[in-house]
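QA checklist item 7 of 12: single-chain prediction sanity check.
[x] sequence parsed
[x] length recorded as 127
[x] structure emitted
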Amino acid sequence: QEVTLAQYRALVVLTEHQPRTMAEIAGVLGLSPSSCTRLVERIERKGLVRRSPSPESRRRVDLHLEPAGELLVATVMAERRRAIQELLAGLPASRVASVRRALTEVAELAGEAVEVAGPLAGHAIEA
């Protein structure tokens, strides 16, 4: 199924730590609360996340990745790694280390976890 980059990034945030609140997701992604709510509603309808009442507070809702969300993130990360390795294979060995450093810096500047940055950034993601 296809997700937007923002939806994918929300899934990645959840892979790093679960559960997360809507406010935490909004903060990490730089979204307004209403935009985050719409984003989560869409990925919830796709069966990628689920919401549950927090055991800590009746006012708080926790977000959890569903197995389909975990699989999507793992699939995209594997494809990104494969694509990067394929690109790097075409370079002379003397250039590979400098290109890896540059890709890492670009990912950090973009605010993405280094592991998820890659040639698919900025496009709809299909798995």
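[x] summary fact logged: The radius of gyration is 16 Å.
[ ] second reviewer sign-off
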